[in-house]
Write a structure and sequence with these properties.
Elements lengths: L2 E5 L5 H10 L3 E5 L13 E2 L3 H5 L4 E4 L4 H8 L5 H4 L5 E4 L5 H13 L3 E4 L2 E2 L2 H5 L3 E3 L5 H14 E4 L5 H31 L4 H9 L6 H12 L9 H17 L5 H15 L11 H7 L5
Parallel strand pairs: 1-2, 1-4, 2-3, 4-5, 5-6, 8-9
Antiparallel strand pairs: 7-8
Helix pairs in contact: 5-8, 8-10, 8-11, 8-12, 8-13, 9-10, 11-12, 12-13
């Protein structure tokens, strides 16, 4: 079985790395905070991203944003410094289209392969190998990564290029934000009209809106359960900002994204940046006079 260098053991990266190790791969990992390794005895700890990549056939990065990805990829101790000829870097982070394009070019110049492969799913999906993966890159490169994807996910939705994979992920995360906005408005309307919000969610999910997304976020919103977060408002705002930037680059107006952006910025101003993404519904409630 191949050796994998895994960079980033956060709420998503840690479970993914563990499932790769349990799938039979040797996983050499690096994380900025060393204490994370206490939770993952299956992983071999390394001293830097470059150290993790030496001797590995694959490098997988799952990091928070463009800044973190750039810091871990470039420089004397970065992924590209240790990634050996023939090895493949699979970037699972949700980053800007511009960042993805830079990564593709930098790997190409070094004679290395890069595959963007952002994922859909919260930490529980990562733990249970139920992620949906959106790989973007050359077909033969995607085929090389297929055994890794099989160990961590339930399906792949290939795109032709790495930047397209980033656009697809940002479009999906925008749709999650739009769903939270719509649910928040509907639940607030129901509550102010004397309808039990739980009754409304049961009706919605039992008829035309029975998707796992509506069921999951709807229950969080009805119960006000925003801690612990599966994905924070702060990270949600980052992704909506990236979606708006991608839209602006191709001349696409996104007024719903701008509305969600405003809600999240307000929630962060009110000290809620680190609660669950669904928690920006509290701003809708406050504007309706119901309180957070």
């Amino acid at each position: 079985m191949p050796t994998i260098a895994f960079l980033g053991l956060g709420s998503m990266g840690g479970p993914i790395a563990r499932n790769l190790a349990r799938g039979g791969f040797t996983v050499r990992a690096w994380n900025r905070s060393a204490e994370k390794f206490a939770d993952y005895p299956e992983l071999t700890r390394t001293t830097s991203p470059a150290d993790a990549c030496r001797g590995a056939q694959f490098a997988v990065s799952m990091l928070a944003d463009d800044s973190a990805v750039n810091a871990v990829t470039f420089g004397a101790d970065g992924i590209l410094a240790g990634l050996e000829p023939g090895a493949l870097h699979i970037g699972m982070s949700t980053v800007s289209v511009a960042c993805t394009a830079r990564l593709v070019q930098a790997h190409l110049e070094k004679g290395r392969d890069y595959l963007a492969a952002p994922v859909f799913g919260r930490p529980d999906a990562a733990r249970n190998k139920m992620l949906y993966i959106v790989p973007g890159g050359l077909k033969e490169v995607q085929e090389r990564a297929a055994p890794l994807f099989a160990a961590i996910g339930q399906g792949t939705f290939p795109m032709e290029t790495a930047p397209q994979a980033s656009v697809a992920k940002l479009a999906g995360n925008f749709m999650i934000a739009a769903t939270i906005e719509s649910l928040g408005e509907a639940l607030t309307l129901a509550e102010k009209s004397g309808i039990d919000p739980q009754r409304l969610i049961d009706m919605l999910t039992g008829t035309l809106f029975g998707s796992p997304l509506v069921k999951s976020y709807g229950q969080r919103m009805v119960k006000g359960e925003y801690v612990p977060p599966g994905f924070t408002i702060r990270l949600g705002l980052k992704d909506v900002n990236l979606a708006l930037a991608a839209a602006a680059s191709v001349g696409v107006p996104m007024p719903i994204a701008e509305l969600a952006q405003d809600r999240m910025e307000t929630a962060i101003e009110r000290g809620r940046g680190d609660i669950d993404f669904a928690g920006f519904m509290t701003v809708i409630r406050e504007e309706a006079g119901l309180g957070a």
